[in-house]
Each structure stands twice: as structure tokens, then as C-alpha cells.
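User: Hey, quick favor. My workstation is busy. Could you predict this chain's structure for me?
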Amino acid sequence: MVKITGGEILKRILEKEGIRYVFGVPGDQLYPFLNALYDSKIKFVTFHHEANAAHAADGWARVTGELGVVVATVGPGAANLVGGVYPAFAENIPILIITAQNQTFRSYPDHGSMQALDQLSLFKPITKWNAVINHWSRIVELTERAIRVALSDRPGPVHLDIPSDVLHQTVDEEDVKIHERENYRPMKKPIPDSETLKRIAKMLISAEKPIIHAGGGVIRSGASKELIELAEYLQIPVTTSVSGRGCIPEDHPLCLIPHSFGALTAQNEADLVLLIGSKLGDLDFFGRPPLWGDYDAQKFIQIDVSAENIALNRPAEIGVVGDAKETLAALLDIVKKEVSPRSALEKNHYYKDLERQWIEQFESMSVTDQIPIHPLRVIREVRSFYPRNAISVIDGGNTTVWAHYLNRIYEPNTFLSSTAGDSGHLGSGVGYAIAAKLAYPDRDVYCITGDGAFSMGMADLETAKRLGLQITFIVLNDSSWGMIRAGQTLYYEKRYIGVDFSEVRYDLIAKAMGCYGERVEDPKEIKNALKRAKDSELPAVIDIKIDREVIPPDFQTLATIWLEGCEPPPKIIKKEESTLAK
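Assistant: No problem, here it is.
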């Protein structure tokens, strides 16, 4: 009889699931699993820090729609994962976290073992589900269950903690039965009943000023095509959450860019909102007036794969549980039977004109040769350099705000940012970019990042170099935590505490790792530097010295949101004075 280890069993389950990459940092408790990967189609990608590995698993899931997998060893290895797992949890990204644990006879409870850690409790608050596998006979059952939970309903991270003796244990191969995917998890997505869909269709058709608000759930379900077709058929404007960016091209006649004048006006004026795959969180202003319509005048129809999200932040006239792709396809079929395609509405032109005014103010700010370089000049140059299908990774505080103004997104799964999502997490850019380039080696991948965010993960430039990945990191270098410095500038009379860095040459660090590096201080050299970086065929860092004194126009508005309910600092702007409130 052939004997196999627990590590081999785990590998075979992942192979059956179609996993292509496992990201992580190795440890001796993981030996049987790592050894099983030696002759596997699954490639193990080692990182310098576990958080970066978790970001890569997260990024892989975002750009491919597949399950991401990350592993770490016991104790400090598992603890280091937490910063990388949190954004995936906050933004509903399906990843499988595998941590090695000390032997079963040493753990739960521990009695003094080295690197001991209650990893089950550590990951419970930032995962959908987690478990300890205490016997080889449960590896298949619990791993398949973890994958099922990660990918079903509202997706998210799951965690398996596996003691090293379980991974080392050998068993008869014939005693192990690994199932096909369709045998342990649902392959068909939920869809509302036809009568409810007919009611929704009638409301959409009869509404005078409907809009569609699309969230990250539209991206996750692959519903972009159905969304655009429904919007075009009924000529309904589409606004998106930040995590939903790319589900409709941002230059589409019906797309209104998040937080633009056009989007805010449409959201306020609409008599009916079709909300799909979004919980209306903080960056959607929780669906509240005045940035949305009054509760008695504006009806909401909410479609979400999770019942928990229905009416979470805004009452719904109709709330239905359904997958975005399947539900929109069925709804579109009903609409086509009820009404002919509509012509463009005059109101839609009005909203797009407002959006153009919003964009033009930032474009005019970007047309400058000032030194130090204005951040918007960098964003405009970068986005014009890369093609529409390039994958855009955004990381940083003020950097994320500047990028939002002029870094347009045109395709699904081409916008990766944890700082712009519900987690507001910095430092994910390097891991996201590596995963994106592994998934799509023939596409351009660029990362616009702040120096603070980039420094968190820059050790894994070596990982990108080792893997032969041409990624360009554009570092907006202001030698500070720029967003916090801006707040101390505006509200505390420049009493700077903990925000300033010494001068760092990120381009020279890149060169030391065998990558391409270049410092840019003249805005007229940005485009040439980007071309040289791409032509090098190496991971590249363009270190750009920017003006640290300019502050994003909407910074004060964001502060009023973040500090809602707090005693205002002496000089903080009042809500009624903010741009968005106006």
C-alpha cells in the first residue's frame, strides 16, 4: 500500500480545486506540505514577510475571481499574516489561510512550547470561519468546508490551523477520498423568484429618474456585461462604490465616477435606486441624505448575495438575495419583454456635464511644470502612459485621493486598492502587484504608491525580481505620512508629531535588489522614466519627489466624515462648509 502524509492530502485537495499558486513564508512545521508541492503543478511563491504573502493571495483572488491561498508557520509567522488578512476580510475577498501549529499534544492549551500561539482565537475576528484540524481523517472534510465557506454567500477569508504532527502523519492512500468541486460546494448561484423580478422590472421601467448603484459584488460575480446591457437598454445612469470601479468603463456615457459632481447629483435626485452588491458603507455615505435622496422620496431596490446586507444602512422597498450576474441576466430578460430599448435621456447628459466639470478642475491643476512636482501631474502622466486594460494598483493615503481624481478605470478586475476600500489599509501594493502580474503576465501592471505605504512592503521587490515580473512602482515621495501631516497642517497649526521621514532614495534600493530604479524631480521627465522602466523588463521603481505642501481638495470633506461625532479640533472645517455637503 502507498503511504501519504497529511501534507500530501492537503496538496491534493488544492490541486483538485485548481489552485495555481500558494503564497507564503516557509517554516519547519510545514515541511510535509512544502515537500508535497515539490512535484506539484501548484507553485509556491515565497515572500520576505507574511503580510505581503497574504496581500498577494488577496490580490490573486481580486484579479482572477479564484480562491487565493497563503500559508505561514506557527507563532510569529501566523501573527505576521494578520495585517495582510484584514483587508481581505473587510472587503469580502475569498482566501484560504493555512497556519502550521505545534503538535496536538502541545497545543490548545499550550503549556510552555516555543512559538506557542492560540491561532484559532487570533484569526476568528478577521475570518468568516476557522477550525483546527486535529486528525488526518478530517483534513479533507474541513478543507473542503473551508473552501465552501470562503466562496459561498458573501465571500471572505477562512482559516485552517494544522498541528505539525497531523501534517507529518502517514496514512494509506486508499483511505483518502478527495471530492470533485461540484460534490462539496454549490456551483449554481442564488437568484430571486420570477414574480419579484417582474415587480423590480416594472419599478425600473416606470421610474422617472432611476439610477443603478453597483458595488464590489458586481465585480466578484462577473456581472459587468449584464450590468452594462441593462443600463444601456433602459438608459439608466450607473454610479459605483469605490470597490465597484471598473464594472463599467469610467468613460462610458452612462457611468458616473464615484464622488464626482455628476454621481453625487444623480444619487441625490434619483427617485429609484437599484443597489447591487453593495452595503452602502462609509465611502457611500451610508446611503443617507443629503448626499442621497430623502427616505420618503427615494426608493431602494437592493440585490445582494447576503441577506445580512439587505437594508443594512438604508431601508429597502424590495430586498432580495441573489447573485448579481444571475439576477441581472434574469431581470434583463424580463425588461426586454416589457419595453423597447430607450433613447438617451437629457438628464443623463446633465449628469455627465457635471462630471466633466469635476474632472476638469483636477486636469487644470495637473497642467503644471512646478518643482517639486504636483501629485496630479504624476497621476495624469502615468495613466496616459498605460493602455486601458492595464492593471492599476493604488496604495497610500493622500496618494489614493489624488489617484481617484485622474486615474481612470476601464475594465473589471483592473483596480486593486485596499486604501480605497473598506479596510483603508496601507502597504498592500507590492503584494497586489505581484499577484496581478502572475495572473496576467501579458498585461501592464503599475502601482501608484506613497513612500510610507511602499516602504512597508518594499523588501519583496526581490520577490518580483526573482519571479521575472515587469511591474513599475511609481512612488510619490513626500518624505512623510502625507495624509496625517495634512491634518496636522490644517487643524493643529503645523504642530507635526510623528509624520516626517528622513530622505530615502527608493530608486537606489531598487537597484540594490537588481531592479530598475530612477529618481525624477522634473515633471517633464516622468513619461520618459516610465518608458525606460518598462523597456528594462525588470521590476522598476520611479521615485518621484512631490510637493508635500499641496493637500487634496476633498481632504477636509473626508475629515468631516471620519471625525463625525468627535469633538472638532480647533480649526476643523464644519460639515456645512464642506464641498460635498454643498
